[in-house]
Amino acid sequence: LNHVHLPPIQIFCVAGLGSGLTEAVVVNPFEVVKVSLQANRDSFKEQPSSFAQARRIINSDGFGLKGLNKGLTSTLGRHGVFNMIYFGFYFNVKDAIPTNPDPTLEFLRKFAIGLTSGTISSCVNIPFDVAKSRIQGPQPVPGEIKYRTCFQTMALVYREEGYLALYKGLVPKIMRLGPGGAVMLLVYEYVSGWLQKNW
């Protein structure tokens, strides 16, 4: 058997992409239900439960790309691109920047790399996020589907609203996923280090 030897950057990027695509397939139906519940303008007491809303979506539109898996391509792009850059960047830059013997400075080094990783990933994947929100959310004209597919939606938003519209919500997204990315990787690093030492 011939083995293909990938450079470390490609290994982490491909592994991140695989994890993101898998995550997207699993979470997309929950995203569809969540968005439909958030878009429901009825009073809170009149809102259906999550399971009732899922049943309603399945009964009217099925499990496919018009029903419970609406916006799947956009979700695949959002999670796949994010995880590919996030893990690829973090694990390669972390190894390229020398460790610091001072525990506080080492913590800050890892935090800064995780923060940068989460921030860059958010900047690159947000057009997929915008497309996902437009496809899964309420359409501008009731009964008429304007946003159908991932790339059709991106092109339409670009044409009608300009390039910057594909980056709507970027600042709150960075404020959530930049520090969130840093915290997640820090916990991973320190917990895995502790487990390797003690188990």
In short:
It comes from Nibea albiflora (Yellow drum). This protein has about 200 residues and is mainly α. The protein has 6 helices and no strands.
Number of helices: 6
| Poorly predicted runs | none
Terminal residue distance: 35 Å
Shape estimate? elongated
Q: How would you spell out the order of helices and strands?
A: HHHHHH
Instruction: Summarize the biggest pleated sheet.
Output: none
Task: Count the E strands.
Answer: 0
How confident overall, as mean pLDDT? 94
Helix content: over 70%
Work out the strand percent: under 5%
CA radius of gyration: 20 Å
Structural class: mainly alpha
What attributes characterize this protein structure?
elongated; mainly alpha; 199 residues; Mitochondrial 2-oxodicarboxylate carrier; 6 helices
Task: Kindly describe this structure.
This protein is mainly α and 199 residues long. Helices cover 72% and strands 0% of the residues. It contains six helices and no strands. The longest helix is centred in the middle third of the chain and has 34 residues, at 103-136.
Write the layout of secondary structure elements.
Elements: H1 8-39, H2 50-61, H3 72-96, H4 103-136, H5 150-161, H6 170-198
